[in-house]
Design brief:
It contains 13 helices and 3 strands; from the N terminus they run H-H-H-H-H-H-H-E-E-E-H-H-H-H-H-H. The longest helix is centred in the N-terminal third of the chain and has 19 residues, at about 60-80. The protein folds into 2 domains: about 1-80, Orthogonal Bundle (DNA polymerase, domain 1), CATH 1.10.150; about 105-260, hpI Integrase, Chain A. Helix 1 packs antiparallel against helix 2 (about 20-35) and helix 6 (about 115-130) crosses helix 10. It is mainly alpha-helical and about 280 residues long. The protein is globular, with a radius of gyration of 22 Å.
Amino acid sequence: MTHLIERFTELLKKGKYNSATIAAYRNAIFVFYNNFRDYPQNKFTDELISEYILGLSKKTSPQVAAQTGKAIILFFDKIYNRKLNIKATGKIKDEQSVEILSRSELQVLFSGIKNLKHKLLLIIIYNNGLKVNEAISLKVEDIDTGNHTIRIDSDQPKKTRILRLSPALNPLIEEYKNKYKPVDVFFPGSGGIGHYSARNIQLVFQKALKESGIGKTAKLTTLRHSFAVHSLENGIAINHLQKILGHSNIQTTSFYVPFAKVELNNIRSPYEDLIS
């Protein structure tokens, strides 16, 4: 744990934090983990952390507890890439919500896009639940239509992901490659130079959404959210979804569970397999 706190300290030094804040945050994390010595990291639920911070406000002061809350929230964000659903005061935030596009809405959205590059980019984001920076950073060698895989590189080799690329995308990918002839970056910017900008693809999505007539306040990240929810509805195990999305903690992936609508009639009992 000490090495993670040291890493956290170095990140704070590179940020906007002064020495007094860094020292206070560092000490808060040390005390927090000493309180839960040898406690498994995957057992740190939002509720547990909330109780800890709320308990501090009774032992010390609301100001000290809130500073501890800020330190813990930042630590989990920077080190575990996990957004805690709690306020600095320790209170649980109101239930979060995201906009999800239905399968039929996605069909309308994609079919209405005329630009081949724009269409393929958005479809790949949905097909694999990618973040926009992951999509625009793809290299030609990352797309393997023969083996139906797509590689998502990471600065940390252990976090590089090999995901399934739908075979149904092969014709569209080949059409795109024949037209644009990408050499290095799969989705190059204007004139084939550099990367396609995240801002541009966000504008492309908003334009497509407006032209589709879908009356939802969706954002580009809605494609990633929709992929996650649809995957759960298709029966994917949440730990597998966690790996696909690149989440460090399964608690982050669990956020999507309440949005998945599974029809009772579609749930099959294992007993049926024994007698079929």
